[in-house]
Amino acid sequence: MNDAVSVSLEQLDAQLQRIAQLVTHDADGDLAHACDALQQQVSDFQALWQKSGLSHPVPAALALHLRKTTAALASTQENLARHAVLTQQALQTLFPQTQSATYNVGFGARARNPYGSVGRQSGEFQVIAA
């Protein structure tokens, strides 16, 4: 059963390396699929670990490999968070949010509303005929 766990860890390592390459090459569609595949692989690894019945003490080689994979996973998580922030900043540059409301600008009882309200008309759209 240790062999199956080792093989699963190697597959996780390969997937983490693939994600690291995709983050640097800006392949967002492929990156989303790779992250979904990683999530499934982690879930499968967790189920395999529970089935294997490995408990303390874990063999030294397997423990070292597990620590390296855990560090790589944490590093990949940080890189994905940075990538998400950069993507969000780029999106804000392309499509900035407005700082104020477009139609209901004022506050209070006499708020300016160009379309008027049921109780009071603003008068901004009155037509003057000569």
Structure report:
- The chain is an all-alpha fold and 130 residues long.
- The chain contains three helices and no strands.
- Helix 1 runs antiparallel to helix 2 and helix 1 runs parallel beside helix 3.
- It is elongated and about 90 Å long.
- The termini are far apart.
Q: What is the element layout, followed by pairings?
A:
Elements: H1 2-24, H2 28-52, H3 60-94
Helix pairs in contact: 1-2, 1-3
Report strand %. Answer: under 5%
Alpha plus pi helix count: 3
Number of strands: 0
Low-confidence stretches: none
Features:
64% helix; mainly alpha; 3 helices; elongated; 130 residues
Tell me briefly what this model is.
By secondary structure, this protein is mainly alpha-helical.
